[in-house]
Structures are given as C-alpha cells and as structure tokens.
Amino acid sequence: MYFPTNIRLLRKRRGRTQDDVAFALNMKRSTLSGYENRVAEPGIGELLAFSKYFNVAIDTLVRVDLSKLSESQLSQLEKGYDVFITGSKLRVLATTVNADNEENIEMVGEKAKAGYASGYADPEYISVLPTFRLPFLSKERKYRAFQVTGDSMHPIPEKSWVIGEFIQNWNLIQNKHAYILLTTEEGVVFKVVENKIKTEGTLILYSLNPFYKPYVLPVTQLREAWKFVTFLSSELPEPNMEKEELVETIRILKNEVKAIQTRLNL
Questions:
Q1: Regarding the domain delimited by 3-68, which CATH topology (the fold level of the hierarchy) does it fall under?
Q2: Is the bond preceding 155 in cis, omega lying within 30 degrees of 0?
C-alpha cells in the first residue's frame, strides 16, 4: 500500500507541515505522523478525508506509487484529472522521461504514424520513439511532436514537426484552436477544431488550407488530443498566394480602368 508515502509526497508538494494538514483534517499531528510512518493505518473515514483534501481518489492514494510519476503527470493529478475520479474517458498517457525524471518530447515521424495508431497506449512502443527537449516549454506539461504531410496543412511546410500539449480532458478543447488528433479512421490529423462534444458528441474539423471542406468527427473516434503550441521546420512557410493573386488582379483592373478612361478622354 502506497498511502503513507503518497500523503507525505502530496503534503510536501503543497508546502504543508504535518500540523497544517492535521489541523485541516481535524486530527492530532501524532495521528498523521503515524499514518506517514506506517505506525498506524487509516480507517475508511480518514481515507475519505485525505481523498477530499488532496482531491485524489482513494484508489490512487492506496494503489499508485505517486513517486514514480513524472512532474507533468503529478501536475495533472493535482489539478483534479485523476482517472479514478473523472472516469475512464480520461486516459493514462504512455510517456517517457529522461534521467532527471523530466518529460521527453517523443517524435512521431511520418513512417511511425501507422504504428502509433495502434501503439499509442503501449509503453514499450512509446519507449522506442526518438526524443528531444525544448527548454522553453513547461516542465509541468506533456508534449509530443508529430510530422505533418500533405497540402491541407498549408501554409505550414511539408514534413514540418508540429508540437502539441497533451489534453487529458476533451471537454477542454478550445474552439478555433489547432490540435493534433489521433482518430480511429484517419490516424493522426492536424486541424482547427470546433468543440461540440457536450451538445452533439462531435468535433468539427477545419483544415488550415481553405480549399479543404470541414467535416464532423464523432468523439467516439477520438483517441488522443494535443493542443498545438509550435512547429519546427527547415523551410520557411510559403507566401499566401491567394492574397498575392488578389493584389495582382486589382492592379490589372486598375490599369484597365485607366486605359478605358484614357480612350474616353481622346
């Protein structure tokens, strides 16, 4: 049972003393000390009290070794995204960490996408993906990089790497933001999203390239969601040809109008 080490870890992460927690839970400090040092075992009433205080499910407090979680996983847990509390719709992410227990950014290249569609939840599959780190990204959040192909992502260059932040609660997907989505039908896609999960159980997906029509994705076909934060590319984005063509058309029309006006004045 991991309860003693877990409550000590959560208490220290909050910067609370044993006196602080004991007072909040209306118990003696010696009782709390006994729990943390395995001298005493809590009853169901005490377990419920600790669960409410830390906003962590009893199952998690008792069965999960929180010291083995990464910083981003602990941060998600402390924000209330506990799978035992929120339900099985919020998945536990397979992830990797470096020697300092900091989250890696795994790279899912174009050739790896097919395997990722079936191995995304397999720790062994995730463990063999190439990894890197970006020092300007938060250590408290989880990121992954996906290589994009196809002109539906225009103006992002072909074979760029788009980096997304893991979204555990799909109800938090924001309208008009870009996301990397893992779907059952199309695999990995990069789209701007309109969230209609609560009202219709769907997402409406828009390509960056306006030539592609939006389409509806039932949330039952969604497996992972990553909010776009940045992209890496060895090429500069192409200029907006539509705008340039429009400017050129206006210039030609102006010249034609001037020519007509000149002929009328003769």
A1: 434 Repressor (Amino-terminal Domain) (1.10.260)
A2: yes
